[in-house]
């Protein structure tokens, strides 16, 4: 990948990468750090990366960097920054988006990842498998289980009949 292709990839995918990571971490500053590290790692290897594979490589690198960062954060201290909190215990009954975000946050990490990649970012099963280093059938199973969990959670909050 040339310098120009790298810069184009940054322009094209930076927002999507950031949105993907921030939905996982719920922490803007941590997400910015993950994205910065991702672009640094990709730049170090830019000469060996095909331009056509830049998107997949960026998301794969961001995913692994995020997992590593979250593991380090859990070992050292609790998150600092912009955590999402609910002030009113009944507010979830009226705010579907907050309730859905809360439900997604309760998912196991791998289910959360595949759901975000599929339903929020629009990747196909094969692309998700490549990013997460799973096979396609595992991706489908995790997505199915995550959707079942989300469905049950939303039913329990009486938002879905």
3D structure, described in words:
By secondary structure, the chain is an all-alpha fold. It has 2 domains: 1-83, Orthogonal Bundle (Rna Polymerase Sigma Factor, Chain: A), CATH 1.10.1740; 86-161, Winged helix-like DNA-binding domain superfamily/Winged helix DNA-binding domain (Arc Repressor Mutant, subunit A, Orthogonal Bundle), CATH 1.10.10.10. It contains 7 helices and no strands. It has helices at 3-25, 28-44, 54-76, 96-105, 109-120, 125-132, 136-156. The protein is globular. Residues 78-93 have low confidence and may be disordered. Pfam families: Sigma70_r2, Sigma70_r4_2. InterPro entries: RNA_pol_sigma-70-like (IPR039425), RNA_pol_sigma-70_dom (IPR014284), RNA_pol_sigma70_r2 (IPR007627), RNA_pol_sigma70_r4_t2 (IPR013249), RNA_pol_sigma_r2 (IPR013325), RNA_pol_sigma_r3/r4-like (IPR013324), WH-like_DNA-bd_sf (IPR036388). Residues 99-150 form the RNA polymerase sigma factor 70 region 4 type domain.
